[in-house]
Amino acid sequence: MTKYRHKVFSNRHLTRLEEIMRAVCADFETELVEFNGENNHVHLLVSFPPKVAISKLVNSLKGVSSRRMRQEFPELTRHYWRAQRLWSGSYFAGSVGGAPISVLHQYIEQQNRPV
């Protein structure tokens, strides 16, 4: 979720965020299975081994994407409040080990992107 839930992202921003987050996941030897988002948050379905600490992965996803988006899209800097952060400090992570992957894909695909 973006800081203060500001409506920041257009489709081109979300497309670039997906590329950045896929690269971060690859660095962690994890797989970004599905990505989607709206104008103020994103949804990620990540497959990762038990050796990866979710807090470190999320911290890296947010930190790297925030820096790169600020560099590549200067118009977003007005949304980088006081601490120069794009994202809020919170996140939700849930385990879905028993759920069919098709159900998870469907849920994330149904999240609307802004027009």
Automatic annotation (TrEMBL):
Signal peptide extent: none
Pfam family, one: Y1_Tnp
Entries under InterPro entries matching the protein: Transposase_17, Transposase_17_sf
SMART domains: Y1_Tnp
SUPFAM superfamilies xref list: Transposase IS200-like (SSF143422)
GO biological process entries: DNA transposition
GO molecular function, one term: transposase activity
Protein name per Swiss-Prot or TrEMBL: Putative transposase
Upper taxonomic lineage: Bacteria, Bacillati, Actinomycetota, Actinomycetes, Pseudonocardiales
